[in-house]
Amino acid sequence: MAKEKYLLDDSLGYKLFHASRLMSNRLNKNFRDAGFDVTYEQWQILSRLYEKDGQTQNQLATKNERDQPSVSRLVDNMIKRGLVARISNKADKRINLIYLTDKGREMENSLTALALKTIEDASDSIDSKELEICLRVLDQVRENLK
Amino acid sequence: MAKEKYLLDDSLGYKLFHASRLMSNRLNKNFRDAGFDVTYEQWQILSRLYEKDGQTQNQLATKNERDQPSVSRLVDNMIKRGLVARISNKADKRINLIYLTDKGREMENSLTALALKTIEDASDSIDSKELEICLRVLDQVRENLK
DNA sequence: TGAATATACTTGTTGATGCAAGTATATTTC
DNA sequence: GAAATATACTTGCATCAACAAGTATATTCA
C-alpha cells in the first residue's frame, strides 16, 4: 500500500483558505468600488449592530467568534471612520456599549445589497442542493475545530 | 413577497471565513505545540518547495495564488527562521531562487503529518461523499471569484 | 470589610495582507 | 544602440490577527 502523497492543492485547508480569502477580497472591493470605506471585518461588526444596536465589545466578540483584542481594535478603526460610537456604561464602568452612528446606520441597505451580490457572484452556477451540503459541511468543520 | 432578511450567520461568506480561520489557527497551534516555529502561510510555501525545490518568488506567488509582496515578506520571515535561502540568479539578476535549508527539508515529514492530522480533526464524522461535494463547491467558488 | 478572584477591556509584539509606488534588470522596438 | 516597456522583486502604509500581559472595575468570600 503506497503512502498517500500530501498535496496542498487538494487539501480541505487550502481550498477553504483560498475561497475565504477570495471572498473577503471581493467583498472589500465591492464596498470600496461603491464608495464605502468599510472592510469585511468591520462589516461583520456592523451586521451584529444592525441586528441589535448597543452591544458590549464582549458580546460582539462572542457572536463573531473572535477575541476581545480584535474587537477592541476593530471598534477603534470604526470610530475613526465614524461608523460607531463607544459609550462607557455608567452602571458598570468596565463595560463599553457600541452604538451605530447615523452614518453607520444609513449604510445598512447598501452594504447588505453588496454583501448579497458578492455571495451571488461566489455561488454562481452552483447547484443549490450541493451548496446546502457544503454549508452543512462547513458547519461541521467549525463544530469540530472550535 | 417578504424581502429576505440578511443573516450574517447563515451566509456562505461568514461560514467560509470562520471555518478557514479556525483551521489556520488549529494548524498553527499543532505546529507550535510540536515545537515547529512555522506558520500556516509559511507551510504553504514549504509545501511548494517540497514539491520542487528552488523556485522563483514569482512561481511561488502564482502557485499559492497570492501577490508578490506577500511572498517576498513570507520569504523574509522564513529566512529569519532558517527555513529557506534566497539565492540571486546569475543569468537574470532580477530573479531570486528560493531553496530549502537542511532544517526546512528535515521538517517535511513532521509538518505533513501535522497538516494531515489537522485535516482529519476538521473532517471528523463528516460523510466522505458530502465532503467531496463541499470540496467541489469550494473549487467552483474559487473559480467564480478569481 | 479587606483580600482574592473574576470580568471587560487595552496595549505590546510579531506575523500576515492588499494596494500603490519604487528599484533594478531584461527585453523589445524603432 | 537608445528609449520605451516589461518583468521580478521590495518598500511604505494601513488594516487585521493571535497571543501574552497589563489596567481598571466588580464581585465573591472568608
From TrEMBL, chains A, B:
The keyword Coiled coil does not apply. Residues 9-143 form the HTH marR-type domain. Pfam families: MarR_2. GO terms for molecular function: DNA binding; DNA-binding transcription factor activity. The keyword Transcription regulation applies. InterPro entries: HTH_MarR-typ, Tscrpt_reg_MarR-type_CS, WH-like_DNA-bd_sf, WH_DNA-bd_sf. Keywords: DNA-binding, Transcription, Transcription regulation. This is DNA-binding MarR family transcriptional regulator.
